[in-house]
Write a structure and sequence with these properties.
The chain is 57% helix and 7% strand. By secondary structure, it is α/β, with parallel strands linked by helices. Strands 6-5-7-8 form a four-stranded parallel beta sheet, covered by helices on one side. A two-stranded antiparallel sheet has the order 1-2. Strand 5 (431-436), helix 23 (441-455) and strand 6 form a beta-alpha-beta unit. The termini are far apart.
């Protein structure tokens, strides 16, 4: 018999709270969009389902989103009111599809969705602006006091697992500073894309001066990857957020002595500029706060630095081992060469030192990248993601991890692996392909070269010289695929793809889809290489 343990009422409720929070954290990690109002959550689900698809029946949308068909129809009308000139187009025969203008992309849609949310407007306004009381905030947002209070209560409930909240007494965001900054970093990037849309030109110039002095002090940070607009934009965003929090009196209280020994100071001229602009004295603690990503005790400036940290901290070593096992597993299972292993290990490790929550709120372009890559069965990226999941999700690592973070790490692996495209291309199985067009000999040769240029080693194309369909069928017995411009041509010995005289992107997509089916079904291909196909090319 098990021993009986008696607990007090206080202990009971404490335990209940702990279990609730544990469950809620897992839920929250997967559903960051719950910060949206209920109707906007439905809009989000509909948009997310349609944004990478063509025509879809309302019944299909309903099945996958668990939203009733009548609610979907009403939601389509509501969505169209705020995404113009983009549009959800409806057809009785075809269903619904999202139409984007040539100068638009999914970012535009999700940014428009953010603008509809009173909750996100509250979170943004109270972070970016100073309000002395709820009345001032309510007036600015054109909300009643009761509506504002109700929304703040819901926001605080949803953000509780993230360790920060809206404080109505101080009219400020209070809590874990690292998590606050990470949340708003993701939010500003997702909603605005460019921090220049949020801050003034003077702010931008000041941020650039700060970055320049910092980079001059640490010249080994001046790599090509840190000179891109994307990196500069993210650096500006980080600095802006940190300056804002410093101005409000928020530092990082858990600084260790080792953390603060960074030895970096601004020039006297820049120090004065910053004081005049932010009305805040620039101290060693505030400098540490500005560059916490680099100055915190976990950040590794080099592989030598990382190895030293591993020798002193078992948790860091545990993480390093997981990263190395991940890369070694990819190399072994995919039979690849990783010539920049140390650089990629350091890149992945440092990314984990500044991710303190979900890597997305509503929209992460990295995930869009993989949606477009993985159109053809199980691709390389899917197998790599499974490997990352294996080593990161089940190893009790000292980092925040969820699917959005996994996707971020996956993006880093795929895009930073030296010569990955060439290696995958070389390992693609080749299928014997016949080309038969009822056009000129010269045009057929042109098509052959065009197809082999786009599909590279995946197809070995021969022109089928025949003067009858019977002859075509006889010659195709030794081929896997026939590409033709004749509609509904039946050749029992192989798969047929009919394309335009001047192949379109859709034509190449169809060829690749069929290629994938053939490779997967052929018995004479080694199963270990069968999936090494067009993983990072659409055509």
């Amino acid at each position: 018999m098990f021993p009986t343990t008696v607990i007090t009422i206080e202990q009971y409720f404490s335990l209940r709270k702990f279990i609730f929070n544990l469950t809620f954290v897992n839920y929250w990690r997967l559903h960051m969009e719950t910060l949206l109002e209920k109707n906007l959550q439905r809009h989000y689900q509909i948009i997310k389902f349609l944004i990478y698809r063509d025509w879809e029946k309302i019944s299909t949308i309903s099945k996958f989103t668990q939203i009733s068909e009548s609610t979907i129809r009403k939601s389509i009308r509501d969505i169209n009111r705020y995404i113009s000139p983009a549009k959800l187009e409806s057809s009785k025969q075809l269903g619904v599809r999202l139409i984007l203008m040539p100068d638009q992309n999914p970012f535009f849609i999700f940014s428009a969705l953010y603008n509809q949310s009173a909750r996100f407007s509250i979170l943004e306004e109270i972070f970016l602006s100073r309000h002395t009381n709820l009345t001032s905030l309510a007036d600015h947002l054109f909300l009643s006091i009761s509506t504002l209070k109700r929304n703040i209560g819901t926001i605080n409930e949803l953000l509780a697992p993230f360790d920060f909240h809206i404080d109505c007494t101080y009219m400020d965001i209070i809590g874990d500073e690292r998590k606050i900054c990470w949340f708003y970093f993701c939010y500003l990037i997702e909603k605005y894309g460019l921090i220049e849309k949020v801050i003034t030109e003077n702010d931008v110039e000041l941020m650039d001066e700060v970055m320049q002095e910092f980079m001059d002090c640490y010249p080994f940070l001046q790599t090509p990857a840190r000179q891109t607009y994307s990196y500069v934009n993210k650096f500006r965003t980080m600095l802006f957020i940190n300056f804002l929090r410093i101005h409000r009196g928020h530092l990082l209280p858990s600084q260790s002595q080792n953390d603060q020994k960074h030895g970096f100071t601004f020039s006297e001229e820049l120090t004065q500029k910053l004081f005049q602009h932010y009305h805040t004295e620039i101290t060693s603690k505030s400098i540490y706060r500005l560059f916490y990503i680099f100055f915190n005790e976990k950040y590794a400036w080099s592989m030598t630095d990382l190895n030293q940290k591993c020798s002193l901290n078992p948790k860091i070593n545990h993480l390093r081992v997981a990263i190395e096992k991940t890369l070694n597993s990819i190399v072994g299972k995919e039979n690849l060469i990783l010539s920049n292993k140390e650089e990629l290990m350091l890149y992945l490790y440092n990314a984990t030192t500044y991710i303190w929550g979900p890597a997305k709120i509503l929209y992460n372009p990295n995930e869009e990248f993989f949606i477009n890559l993985n159109n053809y069965y199980e691709g390389f990226t899917q197998r790599v993601k499974e490997i990352i999941n294996r080593y990161f999700l089940n190893n009790d690592l000292p980092i925040y991890i969820d699917d959005s973070v996994i996707n971020r790490l996956l993006f880093m692996v795929v895009t930073s692996w030296d010569s990955l495209s060439d290696q995958l291309e070389q390992k693609s199985p080749t299928i014997k392909t016949g080309l038969f067009f009822n056009t000129s000999y010269e045009h057929c040769n042109f098509l052959k070269e065009d197809i082999m240029y786009h599909l590279k080693t995946r197809v070995n194309v021969d022109l089928i010289e025949a003067t009858s369909l019977t002859s075509v069928r006889e010659k195709m017995c030794k081929y896997d695929l026939l590409i033709t411009n004749l509609p509904s041509l039946f050749v029992p010995e192989c798969t047929v793809v009919s394309i335009h005289s001047n192949p379109t992107p859709k034509d190449f997509e169809n060829i690749l889809t069929v290629y994938n089916e053939i490779v997967n079904n052929k018995q004479d291909f080694d199963l270990s290489i069968v999936q090494k196909q067009n993983s990072i090319y659409k055509y």
